[in-house]
TrEMBL record:
Domain of life of the native organism: Eukaryota
Organism field: Klebsormidium nitens
Keyword terms, alphabetized: Metal-binding, Nucleus, Transcription, Zinc, Zinc-finger
Cleaved signal peptide residues: none
Subcellular location: Nucleus
Protein name listed in UniProt: Transcription elongation factor SPT4 homolog
Transmembrane feature ranges: none
Location of the Spt4/RpoE2 zinc finger domain: 18-94
Gene Ontology MF annotations: RNA polymerase II complex binding; zinc ion binding
Known role: May regulate transcription elongation by RNA polymerase II. May enhance transcriptional pausing at sites proximal to the promoter, which may in turn facilitate the assembly of an elongation competent RNA polymerase II complex.
């Protein structure tokens, strides 16, 4: 039997408090990012830092994908989220990540795929 990946928390509210991580597009509430950060981007260190959550996430996204088996999902491959933890992900994130955060990703050896340019056709 395949080993189970730890999953990100499912959003507890689907209202205005939803945000998407600018790097991986994981969707959770502001409070969930504040409490646990991003399971894919722990190097952003969002826990207990409201300003950091606002800097690393956005409310400006569209669509939500519920991803249970990233390694076996054609949608995950298409969206380039197949290496991330199971969870809810934005289909399209409408703003780019700051240069400062892009540099942090590079310094940590984490690839940044600009999500504001995907699926715009």
């Amino acid at each position: 039997m395949a080993e189970t990946m730890p999953a990100a928390a499912v959003p507890t509210d689907f209202g205005r408090s939803l945000r998407a991580c600018l790097r991986c597009s994981l969707v959770k509430t502001f409070e969930q990012f504040l409490e646990a950060g991003c399971e894919n981007c722990d190097f952003f260190v969002m826990e207990r830092d409201k300003d950091r959550v606002l800097e690393c996430t956005t409310h400006n996204f569209s669509g939500v994908i519920a991803l249970m088996h990233p390694d076996a999902s054609w949608v995950a491959r298409y969206q380039r989220i197949g290496k991330f933890v199971p969870g809810c992900y934005a289909v399209h994130v409408a703003e780019p990540m700051s240069e400062e955060l892009q540099t942090l990703c590079e310094d940590r050896g984490k690839k940044y795929i600009p999500r504001h340019t995907l699926n715009t056709a």
